[in-house]
Inverse folding.
């Protein structure tokens, strides 16, 4: 059993994960509109991963005998200055999510809620990977160039991404 406060905090995270999916869908649509099919693929898969994160949170709340609250999802931005800008926004967004997960972990610690602390470990590890990947792509875009042949080379690399759904969120 989790406290009402924890249930609400986890439900707010479901909302944040849905917003993440919305944001990456918007970026996929932007990339597609400027003919960067590889980047569109990368963002679309990212959006699907975020949906898997919502399911993990949702299932956990229910497994604890509580009921997830479903809050309204904010509208994401629809335009970006360049692919580099979209990935810089991705990195900033993932850093913000990392902070939110840390806040949840702190709440679980304060409540001596060991089950939720263990549950959140997966998200803590995931965020390290999320930030590292976004940072790598930002770095490669800066190195290769955000226009012309360099951009198309990075776009080709982004086309190779395939969806891997985390265990427990299939
Ligand atoms: Fe669900 Fe990208 O963090």
């Amino acid at each position: 059993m989790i406290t009402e406060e924890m249930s609400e905090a986890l439900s707010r995270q479901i909302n944040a994960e849905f917003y993440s999916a919305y944001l990456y869908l918007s970026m996929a649509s932007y990339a597609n509109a400027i003919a960067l099919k590889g980047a569109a693929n990368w963002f679309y898969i990212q959006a699907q991963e975020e949906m898997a994160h919502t399911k993990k949170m949702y299932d956990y709340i229910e497994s604890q005998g509580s009921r997830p609250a479903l809050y309204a999802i904010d509208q994401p931005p629809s335009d970006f200055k360049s692919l580099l800008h979209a990935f810089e926004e991705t990195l900033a967004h993932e850093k913000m999510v990392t902070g939110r997960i840390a806040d949840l972990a702190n709440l679980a610690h304060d409540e001596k809620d060991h089950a939720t602390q263990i549950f959140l470990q997966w998200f803590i590890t995931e965020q390290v990977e999320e930030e590292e990947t976004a940072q790598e792509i930002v770095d490669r875009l800066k190195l290769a160039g955000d226009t012309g042949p360099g951009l198309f080379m990075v776009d080709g690399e982004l086309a190779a991404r395939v969806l891997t759904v985390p265990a427990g969120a299939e």
The two ends are 24 Å apart (CA to CA).
